Amino acid sequence: MGLKGIEDIADRVIKPSVLRGVTLYTALTAIAGCALFPILWAVSGSLKSAGEVTTPTLFPAHPQWSNYREVFALMPFWRMLFNSVLYAGCVSAGQVFFCSLAGYAFARLRFRGRDTLFVLYLGTLMVPLTVTVIPQFILMRIAGLTDTPWAMIVPGLFGSAFGTYLMRQFFRTLPAELEEAAILDGCSPWQIYWRILLPHAKPAAMALAVLTWVNVWNDFLWPLLMIQRRSIATLTLGLVRMQGEYVARWPVLMAASILILLPLLLLYTVAQRAFIRGIAVTGLGG
Amino acid sequence: MFVAPNLAAVAVFMLFPLGFSLYMSFHNWDVFTPAKFVGLANYRSLITDPLFSIALRNSVVYTIGTVVPTILVSLAVAGVLNRKVKGISVFRTIVFLPLAVSSVVVAVVWQFVFNTDNGLLNIMLGWIGVGPVPWLVDPKWAMASLCMVTVWRSVPFATVILLAAMQGVSENLYEAARLDGAGELRQFVSITVPLIRGAVAFVVVISIIHAFQAFDLVYVLTGRNGGPETATYVLGIMMFQHAFAFLEFGYASALAWVMFAILLVLTVVQLRLGRRRAAQEEQSWA
Q1: The pTM is what?
Q2: FRET pair for B226, CA 20 to 30 Å: which of A13, A196, A228, B283?
């Protein structure tokens, strides 16, 4: 093969692929930039002084950490953080337990009306929040639970149609041999669920837990309707109230936004796989 | 019974509200006085309410203005993220990050980006010689701004689902196409997109359902009245106002049921169309 031939091959193989690589990484960087720039701009804004906030610099000349200190002075941040963790934690734990229990029953046990009941469950997945929110609000008022922590916990604690569906689909993928030996040993359905199937359902349980956690943490409408007192408010609600009171005080508002975002970013980096898989499987979120 | 606690929760917080909401929509009720049966009066006054037609129009504009760009952008983004190259997981992590951010934080941060006097967007437009745009202040721009933020927020969600579907497309098909001399764009348009049609349809349905009921983002970004003027007065805002500001629970429930009905019709039409298209294509294969 002559030099010409090698050049031809180089032209065909190397150059286009290098070019393609550069194009691909440029595209990837541009996409990542679009996803990140509002957040980066918020971080930058949270460190600016009132004077500097009108300038387009990304890196403030003199980072004003005092903006963050001001957030702690203006809102009971730790208290609200505790509330958000409490609500999200309780609801996530309840969802995982009760939905996996019901999901197991729907997937593996035989009982009268099982299939009819499951179709009913699927049906409720179609009902939009718009329709249910007003009666739920009235229910909580009648029960006298408005403006108490219970209002945030009770509606989600005992499970949901969505979570049950997710867990049932997962249990159905587990092989039947898993429990056959246990049945021969005379284990009760509860023992089979608790000792054998639940440990195997960890990926689905994780996905459900993380999705629930993020939803409760980020929920706005429900706490807005339910909670008046600052001492039991969530961080998300606290931010909206703050936005109403300190209009256009951008550095402090951005500092508060970043502080509220941080715990979730932490969760996201740790549990990213479960979170993304949960969304991909269920189509919930967004 | 394993299903009992879960079933109780679904019955109390989903099934009962569904029925109760329908019941309320035929009554006039403000919680303080006894409910009064009014038949279809709520629905009739809804049709003649000029604000309802404004809200409906805004919601339709908002739905089209967010769903179409979201699908197009996320198809492209998922296509790029589907490439198995070095560091792709880092890019995926960054692109999916907005999924963990609550709509409240999104709205507050974007208010800062949209700020007329010194917001990032107007600073950047200034560099290319375009005068400041009153993004959230001018009724003409407010809806466009709202759509922009929503697209930013929903693209990662749609991308997760589309990417998961793309990863299921067999590598052999691309191999064959490459042998036939099809370029990358060609492969994407004639292999990837048709094969993930199901996932695309799913994302379209979910996105329409989300967009049609939008509330959080609108409430925080442009205010609880859907301003400026009625520029972002969407159905979600209208329902919230009537239920929780004016305490017209009957009227608000009627509105919720109209929204539910429209969504049901849209979903059914969408599924029908999808099925017919699939059937046609199967025929053309034969």
Answers
A1: 0.88
A2: A228
